[in-house]
Amino acid sequence: MVEFDLLATVLDGLDQGLVAYDRNLRIVAANARAYEILELPQDGFGVGTQFEEWIRYTAIHHGGYIDSGATVEERIDKRINVANNFILFTSDNKRPDGKVIEIRGKPYKDIYITTYTDITARKATEERLRDSEERFRDMAASALDRFWETDENFRYTYLNEPVNPELVPRTQDMLGRTRWEMVGINPQEHLNWRAHLKTLEAREPFRDFIYPMAGSDGKMRVFSTSGKPIFDLDGNFTGYRGTSTDVTRKEELARLKREFISTASHELRTPLTSIRGALGLIAANAVGEIPETASELISIAERNCNRLLLLVNDILDMDKIESGAMAYHFERLRLNEAIRKAIEANRTYGDEFGVSFKLTPSPVDGWVEADEERLNQIIANLLSNAAKFSPKGSSVDILVESLGTIFRISVRDEGPGIPEEFRDQIFEKFTQADGSNTKQVSGTGLGLSITKSIVEGHGGTIDYETEIGRGTTFFFDLPQAS
Asked: Where residue 404 sits, what CATH number does that domain have?
């Protein structure tokens, strides 16, 4: 009796409905879940009743479970035939009310056991997944971008078929290969590919990695790819997923634009230099005394000429940086002395804005490997920014520190500070923080971007700390020379 009660408890605890009948189709066992799923009243359908009565009730009241296009009697006859034959039976049946019942039947000696599972929610989820997959396939088939996935070894496992297959490598040529294998290079032999591989191995997302690759037509094309790492439910890395875009035309237009700007800038710099020199001679009375009213106009013209020349030089430097043609002439420099000289060379920035420069040298009078002209350019950009945004009569503090294997050079102003929303873009081209007094000062928006590139060209890093209303400290780190 105890064993029977235990069995009854177990059956009633199942999430599935369970019904058992003998060779005479007489019900010998049924749990509560069966009545709930089939929506059968227990009175009149208990143990000892005929299974045929169960079939007839469900066919009449709920549309039945077999051949919804058949008549009620046809559905009943087919289901009874299955029951009488004691054969394996599997069916997923959707009722007219939308409920989906999974039926599984299996004989055991002289007993036939049938389970009923309500899979309505699961079927709805599967349907949504199918719709989602179909939408993705439709979008992927019509997209100009190439959708891709890789395994943990960065080999392609999926790519959609592109709109213009003649312009890109075929899917079958890419599956099972890495991006650099498609290009035909060793990533360790190229700086940009080595950095890209380092990002992949660190399982970090990446954006707009540009690389050339031959298309199906054999012509070289330029692609931009972005991706993010994929992890399974246990947190294990399984690969990357992302998109690639053919940016050949865009890159060609950018190249033409850079060439035009570079050519125009070169053509402007020579006459501007001559004009500035001539204005300087006139302002110094080298060609004779000039009236006071004319002197003021000459000063205005000289300042604007200097501003134009600064813009031209910044554009040319940015062009060199983007084309990888920025040249460095490294030499051993005593850092304290190099910084002092750079400050003296740029003290006019402070004078122009009524700001003083104060240097605190490092107690460790060490050396760095640096290009003195480019180091002066870094200091000039940071000092000019600090002076422009500092209140008149304040000071800009320059601090040189020895921190282990690096030197840190900090430039601190007492300006309005930089809003936090500019942190991610402050070192990008043509970016200027819209602080309280930025409209009162001018600039190209290229200085900090150029400065960052030069610092990185020296193997260093640059960053800043800021407090609204209190000021900003830009600092850059350079490796100490051995």
From this structure: 3.30.565.10
